[in-house]
Amino acid sequence: MKKFLRITAVVLAVIIVLGAGLSLFINAYFTSGRLKALIVPEIERATGRKVSIGRINISLFREGVVLSDMALARRSGKGDFLSAKELVFKYRFLPLLKKQLVIDSLSIDSPYIFIERAKDGTFNFSDLKARFQSGESGKEKEKSKEPFNIAIKEISIENAKARFVDEMGKLPAAQADASMDFSLSGPGQTKTPNVPAISGEIDLKGLRTAFKKVNATISGKIKIAGEVKLALEADIGQDRIKINGTALNYTTVPAVDLNISSQKVDLDRLLPLMPPGGKRKSAARGKAPVREGVRGAQRPASNVSAKGRISIATALYKRYVIRGLDADWRYLRGAFSVSPFRASISGGDKVIVQGNLFGSIGYGKLGRQNTLYGKGQARFSRILVKQSPISSQIAALLGMPELGAPSFTGSIINYEIKNGSIFLDGYLDSAQFEFNPVKGTVGVNKALNVAVDLDLSPALSARIGKKYLRFLTNAKGWTVVPLKITGTTAKPHVGISKASVGKALKKGLGGEIERGLQKLFR
Prior knowledge:
The protein is of the alpha+beta class. The chain is 19% helix and 49% strand. It is built from nine helices and 25 strands. The radius of gyration is 36 Å and the shape is elongated.
């Protein structure tokens, strides 16, 4: 037994001595200067850019490979495109004998990347992509019949920073700080071939942007474990928006469930930040228009589906206060819809309202083209018109100043959006007069085509001064003045609907009164 222990001790001592000797040999032969002389020219040849490395250390059994102060220059040569304070590769020794590089962990300290889009639309990494795709950097791969197999088990990134600049001016400049920890399994264990399974967490310390004088910061956690889980907060100006959700099958057919909530949102500040809907330019004469599917045409991602909920306690929009906004939203095959939504609305400037909104709205393909669609209802307990060109024209037409700033209670307006127009149907109610019904359309070009029956109480009817209108009465004995509103929302035109008056009078009084009305309201 003692002999066996002595032999074992001798073997262990030999192994330790050999290991220590091998480690000393590696450190003595693979000096930092010699390694840089081998590695830096190869990286520069592959990328076409200047490379700098502070030191390279190799430890056989402890730290592995350590690269400090590494940087890849920008295409112009001024400043860094990529840099890192330190990269540490911890690998397994025995797999090297089988030409397998198994990296237990890769840790990167303080990496930095600078991304820039030039005025011509190209990015500052376009040249790198072109070199790798052309195969200029793959000559060694052709020579090697038995390539090294590389497997990375864990990746840790601390204090990562990124900066984005858009010379085209279409996207806001951005800076980001984050730390990340990932573990990877081998390819073949996911639904996507050659893509390793990833699990880990991103600690987004801050993604900061400034656009149109509005500062925004996004922070939070992103967890990946079979699915992606988001828990983010966006501070936009003085508003805070919470974003929580999940994404399934993110490598194949993404299905996103995203909930957005906030205590207060200023829509007057947020809506101008949204990208404008680009209008398609008409095709040049003699050329066919660009169709979906043609290279260069923008198409929505057909394999992405998304849904979620929007909950906003208070939203501000053009002096209106929208409370309790609650809506379900969905995106599928390029179509976006919000259905149903509900909220209360109050306040205003030229028109003060108080009431509730219900309905749905969406944008997507109906038939052969994309269009806006939806339907719903607005119920108002109060409407006070302080200033309106429509009410001013009605007051002047009938000689009743009180109609220039009308007040309504218990009013309902139904709407339906289709064929590029908003179809209205409802009524506005008050003690001395009513607009009942209000029926017509408002086009996307703001064109008006609305018919309104203005019902006047007997007290107001006596002041009309247009005797023929007294023959148009409803069941309550109120005088009915049929109005026609045309023009646009900016420049409306209000007049008596001769067609409605004529139809009503023909039934009981013949054409003589109709001819008198035509003279009266020329």
